[in-house]
Design goal:
The structure holds two protein chains of two kinds.
Chain A: H1 2-20, H2 31-35, E1 49-51, E2 56-57, E3 61-64, E4 76-82, E5 104-111, E6 118-128, E7 131-139, E8 146-148, E9 153-158, E10 164-169, H3 172-178, E11 180-181, E12 184-185, H4 197-205, H5 230-241, H6 266-269, H7 298-303, H8 322-334
Antiparallel strand pairs in A: 1-2, 3-4, 4-5, 5-6, 6-7, 7-8, 9-10, 11-12
Helix pairs in contact in A: 5-8
Chain B: H1 2-11, E1 21-24, H2 30-40, E2 46-49, E3 52-55, E4 58-62, E5 68-70, E6 77-80, E7 86-93, E8 99-106, E9 111-116, E10 121-129, E11 141-146, E12 149-154, E13 157-159, E14 164-169, E15 172-177, E16 180-182, E17 186-191, E18 194-199, E19 202-204, E20 208-213, E21 224-229, E22 232-234, E23 255-260, E24 263-268, E25 271-275, E26 278-283, E27 299-303, E28 307-311, H3 320-326, E29 334-336, E30 348-350, E31 356-358, E32 374-376
Parallel strand pairs in B: 1-2, 2-5, 3-6, 4-7, 5-8, 6-8, 7-9, 8-10, 9-11, 10-12, 10-13, 11-14, 12-15, 13-16, 14-17, 15-18, 16-19, 17-20, 18-21, 19-22, 20-23, 21-24, 22-25, 23-26, 24-27, 25-28, 26-29, 27-30, 29-31
Antiparallel strand pairs in B: 31-32
The chains are: A alpha+beta, B mainly beta.
Chain lengths: ~350, ~400
C-alpha cells in the first residue's frame, strides 16, 4: 500500500512537472554507468531520476519500502530498484531477492518535511558482472547535484526530534562493512520477508520479478508497532538493524552472536551468552541478553548508547533509536529464558 | 590503461612491478584524503603517511589486497583518534597480504587496528596507545587480528588497552614477537587460535602478562599448539581495570603467563618476575557453558625451563595472605586449579621441576571459594607434539 502510495505521489508530482516544464523527457537509465568499470562521478550519470531533487524516478526505476526499516538517525529513506530490460529478479524464498547483473538498488537519505526537505546522500548498489559495488553520493546544498563521496563525509544535521548531530555519510569501505557476507558485497534490504506482498505482485505484473517468493511479507510493519507482537517486532528489528554483521560470514561473525530472523538457537541470539570482544561495550554486564532483565543486557546497553566504541550498530547511527530500544527491551522483559518466538 | 595493466599483473599473483606509491600528508582534509587513498589503492600499491599528526574523526578502513601502509616511524606519523565520532575501531583491514608499518595510533574510541578475515597480515613498528594510561573507558584491543590465517606482529608497542594490548583471536599460524605490551589488562592474548608463537616480547605493568585462552560458543574453537618462549614477563601489578562482563575482567592482578582451556602449550625460557599472584597459571574455563564442541580443560601444558622470581607473594584473591603464610612467604610459581580432562591427558607438566600448588577443584565451573589449596608437583614430562608448525608463514618475514 505504502509502495503504491509513493508511486502515486511520484506520478502526481511527475504530472505537475510535465505541465510546468514541457521540455521534460524521461531519461533512460545508463546501463553502461551501472555495469562498466569505474566509479561515475555524479549520480546524474546513472539517469535514475527525472527530477533527482524531487526524487522522481525515471521509467523502470521502481520505488519500494520495507516493512521494518533500518534506523538511520531518523532520516527519511527513499528506496528504488532498477532491473535492466529483458531480465527479471529471481525469488529465493523469504530471503534476498536475486537481482540479475545490471540491476541497481538506490537509496536516498533525506531530512526535513515538504519544501524544507534536504537530500543528504544517495547510496547506490550496482550489480556488475564481477559482483556488487556500493558507492555513496553526497548532495550539494543547492540540491542540484550529488557527487561521488568515496571517502564519505560528515554533515551537520538537525534530526526530526530536533537534535543537532554530525551525520556520517559512509565511505565506500564502510558501505561494504554492512553490505558484506563472506567477503562479498551483497544487498541487505530487499529480502522477500520484509517486502509487502502487494509490491512483490506489482513487480511480477511489471515483469521485473519471476514470481512472488514463498515466505514473503512476514516481517511486521514497524509503523504498526503499537499493536504488533513484541517478539516478532523485536526479532524483525534485530534482523534488519544488526544481523547484516551479526551472522555467520558477517562483519561481526567472530562475536558468535547471530541475530538473524531465522536463527532460533537461544544462545546464538545472545540469551545467557557472555561477550567475547565487547570491551567497555559490555557496560559492566555479563551477558548479551538476560531474560526478564533488559537493564542487565549488553544488547540493550549498546543500543541505548550513542558513544563510539559502545554504540551498536557501529556504523550508520549517531543517535539512539528510542523506539528500537523500547521494543527490544520489552521483548527481553517478557522473556523467561525458556522460549523464543517470532 | 597503464593502471589496468598494473592491476592485471597483481591479480596474476606476480609481484607487481609497477606498484604505485600514494603519499598522504597531515592537515586539512586528512580524513578524506587518507581514506580515499585506502580505497583507490590497487593491489601492490604503497600508501605513505608523511610525518605529522593526523586528526581523524572516523575510523579508517582498507579492503584492497597486498597494500602496504607505511608511516615515517612510530614516533613521527601519528594517527590521532581523540576526536573520533564514529566506527568501532581506528583502522579496519579486511583484505589479505596487507603490511602495516611505521606509524602510531592514539586514543581510538573502540579498538585500535582490527584485521578481520585478513590473511597473511604483517604489523611491524606500530604503536597503539591510550594516552591517559589504564582506564576502563579505553578501547578493548590495541592490535586485533581475528579470523585470519597468517599473522605476524613484530616490533609493536601497545599500552592502555582495557582488554588486551595484542589480541589474536580465532586465527592460526601466528607470530607475536619483539613487542612491548604495558599498562593493559592483558599484555598479549592468544585466544581460540592455533599454531601460535609468542617470543621475545616484553609484557610488563599489565594486570596479566601473556594469556592463552580458549572460549566456548565461538565460530572458531579448539585453541592449541602454542609456544610461549623467551619473553620478559615482569611487574604485572596493575589492578584489573577491564569493564566487568569481559573474560579478562576475571584475570588476577599479578598474573604472569596464564593458560586456560588449551592443548599443547609450551612455556619455556621466559623470565617471569614480580608477578604477585602467580608466574604460571594453568586452569580450566571457569564459567558454565553449553557447547558440546568445546573442551574446557588445559591439556598438555608444559612449563619448561623458565626463570621465575619474586612471584606469588601477594596473590589477588581472598584468603591469599593466609595462604602465603602457610606456604612460608610466597606461593610456588605454578598455580593449577586441579582440573584435567577425563581422558587421562595431564593438564600440566614441568620439565625443570617447577614447584606448584593446586586449588584442588574437582569440577569445572566450581568457584574458587570452595578451593582446597595444597602443594602440587606436576609430572615431569609432557607429551611430544610437532612444534615445527607454530608461527607465521616464513614468507611474511620478507615484508619486514
Amino acid at each position: 500500500m505504502r509502495g503504491s502510495g509513493l508511486l502515486l505521489v511520484a506520478a502526481a508530482a511527475l504530472a505537475g512537472a510535465v505541465v510546468a516544464e514541457a521540455r521534460l523527457v524521461a531519461p533512460t537509465v545508463s546501463d553502461a554507468a551501472i555495469q562498466q568499470d569505474g566509479y561515475p562521478r555524479t549520480l546524474e550519470e546513472f539517469g535514475f531520476f527525472i527530477h533527482a531533487d524531487a526524487q522522481i524516478p525515471t521509467l523502470g526505476v521502481v520505488p519500494y519500502e520495507l516493512n521494518t526499516p533500518l534506523f538511520s538517525d531518523g532520516a527519511d529513506k527513499l528506496r528504488f530498484v532498477y532491473v535492466p530490460d529483458g531480465t527479471a529478479i529471481e525469488p529465493d524464498g523469504e530471503g534476498l531477492l536475486q537481482f540479475p547483473v545490471g540491476s541497481a538498488i538506490i537509496k536516498t537519505f533525506a531530512f526535513g518535511e515538504g519544501d524544507e526537505r534536504q537530500l543528504i546522500e544517495t547510496r547506490v548498489l550496482l550489480h556488475r558482472a564481477d559482483g556488487w559495488l556500493a558507492l555513496p553520493y553526497r548532495w550539494n546544498e543547492e540540491q542540484t547535484e550529488a557527487r561521488l563521496a568515496l571517502a564519505g563525509a560528515r554533515v551537520p544535521i538537525t534530526t526530526p526530534v530536533g537534535e543537532e548531530i554530525s551525520y556520517r555519510i559512509p565511505n565506500k569501505n564502510q558501505c561494504k562493512a554492512c553490505h558484506s557476507k563472506d567477503g562479498e558485497v551483497i544487498p541487505i534490504g530487499p529480502k522477500a520477508r520484509n517486502l509487502s506482498a502487494e509490491w512483490l505482485s506489482d513487480m511480477v505484473g511489471a515483469g521485473h520479478l519471476a514470481a512472488v517468493p514463498q515466505g514473503a511479507d512476514i516481517l511486521p510493519d514497524w509503523d504498526e508497532r503499537a499493536e504488533g507482537n513484541t517478539a516478532s517486532l523485536a526479532r524483525a528489528y534485530l534482523d534488519v538493524n544488526c544481523a547484516h554483521c551479526h551472522q555467520p560470514g558477517g562483519g561481526a561473525s567472530n562475536s558468535g552472536l547471530d541475530l538473524r530472523w531465522e536463527q532460533d538457537d537461544l544462545y546464538a541470539l545472545g540469551v545467557w551468552k557472555p561477550p567475547v570482544a565487547a570491551g567497555r561495550g559490555a557496560g559492566g554486564h555479563a551477558i548479551s541478553i538476560a531474560p526478564g532483565d533488559p537493564d542487565a543486557s549488553i544488547l540493550v546497553y549498546r543500543m541505548n548508547s550513542a558513544e563510539p566504541g559502545i554504540a551498536m550498530p557501529e556504523l550508520g547511527r549517531s543517535i539512539i533509536d528510542p523506539d528500537g530500544v523500547e521494543v527490544v527491551s520489552r521483548w527481553i522483559d517478557q522473556m523467561d529464558g525458556a522460549e523464543i518466538t517470532q | 590503461m597503464f593502471r589496468l595493466t598494473i592491476a592485471a599483473l597483481a591479480l596474476c599473483g606476480t609481484a607487481p612491478v609497477f606498484a604505485e606509491t600514494h603519499t598522504v600528508s597531515p592537515g586539512e582534509g586528512a580524513q578524506e584524503r587518507l581514506q580515499e587513498a585506502l580505497i583507490l589503492a590497487e593491489p601492490g600499491d604503497e600508501i605513505v603517511l608523511e610525518a605529522g599528526r593526523y586528526e581523524l574523526t572516523d575510523g579508517l578502513s582498507l579492503d584492497i589486497d597486498g597494500v602496504i601502509v607505511r608511516g615515517s616511524g612510530m614516533e613521527d606519523t601519528i594517527l590521532d583518534f581523540t576526536q573520533q565520532a564514529g566506527s568501532g575501531e581506528g583502522l579496519l583491514v579486511t583484505s589479505d597480504n596487507v603490511t602495516l608499518r611505521d606509524f602510531a595510533m592514539e586514543n581510538p574510541k573502540g579498538d585500535g587496528i582490527k584485521s578481520k578475515g585478513a590473511d597473511n597480515i604483517v604489523y611491524t613498528q606500530i604503536k597503539v596507545t591510550w594516552t591517559n594510561g589504564p582506564d576502563p573507558s579505553n578501547g578493548a584491543y590495541a592490535i586485533y587480528p581475528v579470523e585470519s590465517t597468517g599473522v605476524l606482529v613484530d616490533g609493536v608497542i601497545v599500552s592502555g588497552a582495557s582488554d588486551a594490548g595484542i589480541y589474536v583471536g580465532q586465527s592460526s599460524k601466528i607470530t607475536v614477537r619483539n613487542s612491548i605490551a604495558e599498562n593493559n589488562v592483558a599484555g598479549i592474548e592468544i585466544e581460540n587460535s592455533r599454531d601460535a608463537l609468542v617470543e621475545h616480547n616484553i609484557a610488563r605493568l599489565n594486570t596479566g602478562g601473556i594469556l592463552v585462552f580458549d572460549l566456548p560458543g565461538l565460530p572458531v574453537m579448539g585453541g592449541g599448539n602454542v609456544v610461549v618462549r623467551e619473553n620478559l614477563v615482569a611487574g604485572n601489578t596493575t589492578p584489573n581495570f577491564a569493564p566487568p562482563g569481559n573474560i579478562v575482567a576475571g584475570v588476577k592482578r599479578g598474573t604472569g603467563i596464564m593458560v586456560m582451556a588449551n592443548e599443547n602449550v609450551m612455556v619455556t625460557r621466559n623470565v617471569v618476575s614480580e608477578n604477585p599472584t602467580a608466574a604460571f597459571m594453568v586452569v580450566a574455563y571457569t564459567q558454565a557453558f553449553d557447547d558440546e564442541r568445546y573442551n574446557p580443560y588445559p591439556r598438555n601444558v608444559v612449563i619448561g625451563e623458565n626463570v621465575a622470581d619474586d612471584v606469588g607473594d601477594e596473590p589477588d584473591f581472598e584468603g591469599g595472605e593466609q595462604l602465603v603464610q602457610a606456604f612460608g612467604g610466597s606461593l610456588p610459581p605454578l598455580l593449577w586449579d586441579g582440573l584435567s580432562d577425563s581422558d587421562g591427558m595431564p593438564a600440566v607438566a614441568v620439565t625443570d621441576g617447577t614447584a606448584g600448588w593446586t586449588l584442588g577443584l574437582t569440577e569445572q565451573g566450581q568457584g574458587i571459594e570452595s578451593a582446597q589449596p595444597a602443594p602440587f608437583q606436576a609430572p615431569d614430562a609432557g607429551i611430544e607434539w610437532d612444534m615445527s608448525s607454530v608461527g607465521a608463514p616464513a614468507e611474511l618475514e620478507e615484508r619486514l
